[in-house]
Amino acid sequence: MYVPRITSMDTLYRPAGVEERWQRTWEEEGLYNAEPDPDRESFVIAHPPPNVTGELHMGHALQLALADALVRWKRMQGFNALFQPGYDHAGISTQNAVEKDLAREGKTRHDLGREAFEERVWEWLRLYGRTIMTQFRRMGASLDYRRERFTMDDDYVRAVMRWFVHLHGKGYIYRANRIINWCPFHETALSDLELVHQELDDELVYVRYPFVEGEGHVTIATARPATILADVAVAVHPDDERYATLVGKEVLVPYVERRVPVIADERVEIDFGTGALKVTPGHDPLDFEIGRAHKLPEPMVIGPDGRMNDGAGDLAGLTQEEASARILAWLEERGQLEKREPYRHAVALCERCESRIEPLISLQWWCSMEELKKPALDALRERRVRYHPEAQHRFAIDSLENAPDWNISRQLWWGHQLPVWYCPDGHTTVAETEPDACAECGSKELKREEDVLDTWFSSALWPFATLGWPDDTPDLRAFYPGDLNTTAREIIRLWENRMIFSGLEVMGEVPFTDVIIHSTVLAPDGRRMSKSLGTGIDPLDVIEEHGADATRYGLLKMSSTQDVRFSFGAVEEGRKLANKLWNLSRLLLQAAGEGVKPEIRPSAIEERWILARIDRVRSEVEEDFAAFRFSHAAQALYHVTFDDFCDWYAEAIKPRLYAGDADAGATALAALERLLGLLHPVMPHVTEEIWTNLPERETRLIVAPWPEPDEAYAEADSLQRVQDAAAIFRRSGVLVALEGDEKRIFDAVVRPERVQANGNAGAEIERLRKEIERAERMLANDNFVQNAAPEVVEAEREKLARYRRELDALEPSLD
RNA sequence: GGGCGGUUAGCUCAGUUGGGAGAGCGCCGGCUCGACAAGCCGGAGGUCACUGGUUCGAGCCCAGUACCGCCCACCA
Questions:
Q1: CA A409 to CA A455: how far, in whole Å?
Q2: What average pLDDT does this structure show over A154-182?
Q3: What pLDDT does A637 receive?
Q4: Is A252 exposed, middle or buried (0-12, 13-18, 19+ CB in 10 A)?
Q5: How distant is C1' of B4 from CA of A557, in Å?
Q6: A32/A143 Cα distance (integer angstroms)
Q7: pTM for this one?
Q8: How far from chain centre, in Å, is Cα A208?
């Protein structure tokens, strides 16, 4: 492949063509690939599979920037790094997209029928799906793209079936009639986690329920008058003195004139409305609980289409609004409508279509969490899996402790159909593949359950199903358990915790040891990034304008706290850094001259100094990466490049470079080499591009060894003197060389002429003198030293005295 | 309603065991010197949200208050 010489190129680094070229090259040369290798330790990140219909958004970009930096770092350190890509079929989300598409033709999925609809989804995916992996590549994400997996692949489906049968065999999966969240548009059950809540303007109506015996009534408040028809009780709080005498009496439900009891239940809020609650177990989750506790009947008046059903008698077939109007009119006539008031409250909506959720009772499949969660909780408590930051670890544990049984069935057409078959006698057969006959009666007339599984039921298997489970494959042995996962906060309960208990259940080991819960990237104005608000920023636009390296750097730089505003400044800083590196390498390559090879041959203090600085940043970056402090690492890399390498070291050696000093040239290239290595995980493209232009490159930087620790230069005598001069005394006898001061001290000691030129030598010395005097004052303060060991205090006094002598010795040389 | 995060320079934000208030961008002044003017050198600019506490000493630790925000949530 043609690689232009850097010295002949533009003074402005243009990432556009360069980045795509390297992305292609790395992939074509197989440098992203991972194969089982008994001689090397593995490092594995199973990247969260995006929706198969998805497009790259800022969350993905951040996730990739973080994870890929770690993967590249580990790869350079010699780990057998596997970064696993793939797609999630994303049941309801994909089905919704295709249904919208159908709607443009004036059709619904029912017009096609199930089989044709599924065909339509596959066809749609061929046209519009699976584009996001191209966008992942554009980020420079070093995923092993050969290993792309899809949760609807035949092998993956087999894993899902095995998982279901396994759980069923252990008795964790059962079928039950319970209240669930029903989406009337998709006509499916949804889990609590698939809802969004939105503040909507409603009306709260106060309705009188007359006593069956005697005069009077009890007034309840409701936002859904249509559900009055399904009332089976009125409930009050047991401590509510207003209603103490009412408990046990009976009242008449309006319109249907049904006699129902007044009961006491602690779940009733005394302070809301009138403090009396109409109990409708068929259409409200709280009422359902109360109903079951009191063994009340569970009539339903609203059907799966959201309209009044046959249970609603003469109102059957009406919409809820129509039914409400009829009921309110009925109440009005009889003086049972006490008042109506505007009411703004949070309403549950389907997160995909924003239809109002209908709570209703439905026969669904459930997965008991009771036993499954135990080993996962142990793992979390023993910190065999750690969420970062720490607050999210506590949240993960709390969530799992309180995880209710999991509704795993969905009445959708796109997804994994449950491996359950029914015979005409109502027997149930559960099997991985279609059975020949009913397991109980041998009937050949089997009909498969129509429901599909919750998308997350299959995603939970991602870390091992992508490696071949349920088969015992070399990949599975080599790459399970993995190391790390990165995700957004709201995914903890949906996915992360479920991968942990699934991994423990079938593999016996946690799927990873660390979970990074990354920042939420908000729009620059602090609002949420969203298409509907128009606040979204397309990462691909940012990449196009500034480059993937700059985008990666910027995202890392800005990802410090839980919520961060997108900062173009941070991206521009990254672009500046790339440009700076580019021009630095032009300088060094030109000035070092032809034939000079990178080699450490330091002869001057500034050379030992820059090597020591680079080595210190190496260890800093290692600590930062290991602790997932990406923002800090980015900052350290920026400063060592700009301030230390370019502004100081490069300026200092320029005269020697131009004079043809081969040692200076060789050392400078060697120092640059190390710097490029440190920067590669964050800015892979520009560093690889420069690396290629260095003489005698045998390997790509992506697989070059991470710079080794280099104690020799860190301990150089002259450097030590610089450090000592900058050291100040801090509490408990800790001596610290102040980072920021070091350069200025270096100035004072090594390049006094420059300091004097700026007229600051006196000021620097004055600063140092003040530091020392402050330390002396502290040492003289009895309150300060009382808790310190006497020998420590004495040692510090001696050090301080030495610094004062050094300072005094330094001063004359600067005059 | 619950959980969590934030509040430091005009803007976006660092500040890792308590002792120097910082960076990038913007602004002002100088440099038109052979990597980069998308550069270099220098400078101005801050009651570290507020109140109280601990301490010789608090941006940092403790208690509380206010505001902003994210996630979650069954007050009908």
A1: 9
A2: 94
A3: 94
A4: middle
A5: 22
A6: 6
A7: 0.85
A8: 50
